Amino acid sequence: MIVVMRTGVKEELVDKVAKKLVENGFQIHLSVGVERTLIGAVGDKSHYMDLALEAMEGVEKVIPILAPYKLASREFKPDDTVIRIGDVTIGGEEIQVMAGPCAVESREQLLEVAEMVRERGARILRGGAFKPRTSPYAFQGLEEKGLEYLAEAREKTGLLIVTEVMDTQKVAMVAQYADILQIGARNMQNFPLLREVAKCNKPVLLKRGLSATIEEWIMAAEYIMVSGNHQVILCERGIRTFESFTRNTLDLSAVPVIKELSHLPVIVDPSHSTGKWKLVQPMARSAIAAGADGLIIEVHPKPSEALCDGPQSVTPERFSSIMEDLQKMAVAMGRTI
Amino acid sequence: MIVVMRTGVKEELVDKVAKKLVENGFQIHLSVGVERTLIGAVGDKSHYMDLALEAMEGVEKVIPILAPYKLASREFKPDDTVIRIGDVTIGGEEIQVMAGPCAVESREQLLEVAEMVRERGARILRGGAFKPRTSPYAFQGLEEKGLEYLAEAREKTGLLIVTEVMDTQKVAMVAQYADILQIGARNMQNFPLLREVAKCNKPVLLKRGLSATIEEWIMAAEYIMVSGNHQVILCERGIRTFESFTRNTLDLSAVPVIKELSHLPVIVDPSHSTGKWKLVQPMARSAIAAGADGLIIEVHPKPSEALCDGPQSVTPERFSSIMEDLQKMAVAMGRTI
Amino acid sequence: MIVVMRTGVKEELVDKVAKKLVENGFQIHLSVGVERTLIGAVGDKSHYMDLALEAMEGVEKVIPILAPYKLASREFKPDDTVIRIGDVTIGGEEIQVMAGPCAVESREQLLEVAEMVRERGARILRGGAFKPRTSPYAFQGLEEKGLEYLAEAREKTGLLIVTEVMDTQKVAMVAQYADILQIGARNMQNFPLLREVAKCNKPVLLKRGLSATIEEWIMAAEYIMVSGNHQVILCERGIRTFESFTRNTLDLSAVPVIKELSHLPVIVDPSHSTGKWKLVQPMARSAIAAGADGLIIEVHPKPSEALCDGPQSVTPERFSSIMEDLQKMAVAMGRTI
Amino acid sequence: MIVVMRTGVKEELVDKVAKKLVENGFQIHLSVGVERTLIGAVGDKSHYMDLALEAMEGVEKVIPILAPYKLASREFKPDDTVIRIGDVTIGGEEIQVMAGPCAVESREQLLEVAEMVRERGARILRGGAFKPRTSPYAFQGLEEKGLEYLAEAREKTGLLIVTEVMDTQKVAMVAQYADILQIGARNMQNFPLLREVAKCNKPVLLKRGLSATIEEWIMAAEYIMVSGNHQVILCERGIRTFESFTRNTLDLSAVPVIKELSHLPVIVDPSHSTGKWKLVQPMARSAIAAGADGLIIEVHPKPSEALCDGPQSVTPERFSSIMEDLQKMAVAMGRTI
């Protein structure tokens, strides 16, 4: 890191900062300029945040040089992480499509959707049993009953199951049923939950928070990895901006950026990010063209009767059309689907 | 709500929407214009989100007319809510200052700060025992030991205690020690946590999420209130914007807006919002001038040795100066402090 | 539009609003509910903004139902606008690539780039003669000399020329040289400039403002169209958000949204939006997959010697690779390039 | 500045960067770490942006240490700039209130408002003769006729005149009538306009752009100052964020930040930033408490008949009440009004 001292600062203040750095195991390097004195410091980047250097007299600002994450970084592990669950791989050559309803609503609804998305090429079934809803008056999910239906759908179709967990007290229960545990956007920085999901030996789908920077998002993955679970799949799902025509703004640049900074696989959610079923198809294509390893798409047999997020769910017919488009995209990208 | 149908939509599609609304207990009102047909619907606003009307054929958009919250609204309860804990009131004529370190670091540090802020006029002591940190490598708090020190500080000084809880599994423990339970910005939409804190009969300090709209923030309060606890204090602490000179952008307009929409008390955190101790004093004054019912301020005996958020903590001397300014502000506003 | 009156409003205030609407040529429709009285009003949407209804006593809010633009809307003109300049079409089946340096730096540089991008398939040459720079100390462009070089490059290569104009006093001069006049992001709401470029009978490339909503962007196009020039090409170039890893956040959802709301062609600038040459290639592919009609890409023979925006300029080699990728994308999308 | 080289970069690439810096007059300083090699460079900060170092092979990023502005900086001129026009000072001990209608609508309207705001303590009259409107169908201002009315109002009341100019071709005309030239938010980076207003020897009121960082805003002031006019008044008027309850988000932290970084006076516009007359009063108080040197407030005799921005205009009665509040705030702040 670089510590920038204020103009005309007294030497003793520079010495104090230097001393604190050395005491904390940093090697330092002084650079006295006409306008500013800089102190370069090399050492354990994971500790610098606790030093409160900005609070020391004479310090103008502290500029980090290295990224604050390690295990998730491309520098630490140059090769792509490929997550394998049975014969399904995420992060390899094959593009994976996770599809299903926003919420598990009933046994019939779920089995119908499961069968339908499997036929059209999806390998993983999505569906919420615990739903984070902005309103306490909205449908909150079928809870364990929903998990049972998901397990039944897996048995019937061979699809893998991805479903959200929101509470540390429910992690063990959800892990009994799910193949992939989903951390929703609102919980990206729910640190006790990140530590808890790390304990079960299952892949974790980590959605980007609505206002999370790419760095904070990777740091959230680092929380899971440092607790012993390296099977993290990142999911871009839109960030909050001033534009309100779409529900959120899908940040597709994040896909190649993640590929540069990290070795973890990254997928895209074109349903929640746009909030409109009409935009799911072009954004699904666009995500693959940006280099995403997969997609998570909301499909509902009758979107207008969905208990949750109907406006962004696509019909089975539309889903077929999306899968055809993705085939062409896979060819263009030299990948399979 | 108003349902706007697409241009040139067939009558049968309008009928379908109308029928669904009526079946769900809404009274409807048709308005056929040259360019658009509108369906006005009056009924239980808390249910409309589950209707998925936007997913019905022919629907262009659905425009809510009424706010989605009820218990927290000024319409429901026109008089200001005043929360009383012992002889301390929040939301009344008196301005309350909560002050203390970002994190409880040691028994000595906490007792020293507690004594010092009490002398200068604070009635409530803040201090984190569980700390949500962006990095897994940063100091995470003293946990229950920290809570014990807080309880000891209360006994010694008579100050009330406000401290954060992050995990549903720790709510009962934190509630044993704290007078006010704090929900941090990152957990504003941690719905299981909101329901859990509602169960203990203690006031809740609900910080605004980094990218939460005012409406979503009030909805989070509604989650707590609908679960039976009406003692909610809202806390504006800055929102995330493109401006990076300050840590976040303090949205002081939110103070009079909350006062208009809701009866709940609202305080301001000038420390986390700005991230810079130099800005705490002007923003503290500014918050009171905007009509806030109180402040929560980070104070540390030696900010440069703080284990957490030192750069935004003020020294005891600076805190004295802030309290003098607030005295003048209270006079200008016709309030006491 | 819908005028929502406050709860418990007196009848005479409702009457006043109704009267004002009728006097201004609106047909009205009253809907008296239990909680709110609504006044629906149908009439000339272009005038409602001048009515200041929100300032009338008893009015809670005014909700527009129809979009405020007309000439640019898909409703007004259902078929795609295809702009033809010689044998080049923009907005049709063919994808157009505009390429060239950020700034015209010298005759040699420009001719070299022009030849090079033409060989690789571009039909339109970009290059700034007037540069809007954040710093007054940065290179501001070669001005008319730059325009002359652009004209020479056109003569030598047959490429069309697109270049920016920033000042109403320079519109006539730039129009003498350019085939397409570019309005930069910072000038999207420079209304005198929009009116001035409308006067010359040349296509206008209208970049989206950094913080412009899609609606405001279309309204800026409407300014040009209402002044008599219907040849407007929209260009998405990233919006300003909290994410600072990329220079701006490329909003690719805007592409299908524009296609739904308007008949105008839309292209994408992957260079300015990301600010990093490494991201230009994936984002160029992604833009085409989203349905864009073309791209505008910064190419420089030696980016590290560029006088402007070198970090986001691609080398000739990289540009070849991008064009190969775009070929595959065109096939996948059923278009030509 | 600090140039951060990529991990494991070859020495010759470091040498190339070093050479380029030296050739451009920078003194350099090498720091070879285990993980990164850094090149510190000291020299003319105003030129570094043209070096395109990020485009050189091996460079990871370039981190500026010094602010890119000079004339506007507090370092360059430690004392507050106080602008004097007749016996009115802006930036000194006295708080100045500029008030008047959004747009000049008629001679009668303007004279009535002028008289009224003067009586209540304003010294400067605001009023737009040229209006930047999002819609081409909205009222665009009375143009020169409006300027004449403003001049007449000055003669009758002794108030100074501040009014907006949007087009380089109109600067000379507006300067004939106005005492202070206003650059609106949409034109903050209209660089030809900034250079043009710098030429007339009159103070310039520079509004912050909707998505301008504080640094970009100061750089816009630098454009005016470098062209020879040092009489710049900065005006915070809200930034664009995700929050849509208010028209924009008033960034009051910007006030003390500007005071730290620059010597220029700074005022606040509580009308445009909030878009709601109810919020004008609390935000006006709040701005003064934050340290602002003045306010610019929209006042209209009958807001519901205003041709522009009625919803955010206050009535004469409300304006009286605001002025009373500001009196108390001035006392609390140790200033006069």
Automatic annotation (TrEMBL), chains A, B, C, D:
State the superkingdom: Bacteria
Picking any one GO molecular function of the record gives:
3-deoxy-7-phosphoheptulonate synthase activity
Q: Which residues fall in a coiled-coil region?
A: none
Tell me the Pfam families matching this sequence. DAHP_snth_FXD, DAHP_synth_1
Q: Which InterPro entries match?
A: Aldolase_TIM, Class-I_DAHP_synthase, DAHP1/KDSA, DAHP_snth_FXD, DAHP_syn_2
Per UniProt, the keywords (alphabetical) are: Transferase
Signal peptide span: none
The DAHP synthase ferredoxin-like domain covers 1-66
Q: Taking every annotated instance into account, which residue ranges of this chain make up the domain DAHP synthetase I/KDSA?
A: 83-329
Q: Name one GO biological process term.
A: aromatic amino acid family biosynthetic process
- Any idea of its EC number? 2.5.1.54
Query: Do you know which NCBIfam families this protein is assigned to?
Result: DAHP_synth_Bsub (TIGR01361), PRK08673.1 (NF006421), PRK12595.1 (NF009239)
Q: What is the recorded name of this protein?
A: 3-deoxy-7-phosphoheptulonate synthase
List the source organism.
Thermanaerosceptrum fracticalcis
Q: What is the lineage of its organism?
A: Bacteria, Bacillati, Bacillota, Clostridia, Eubacteriales
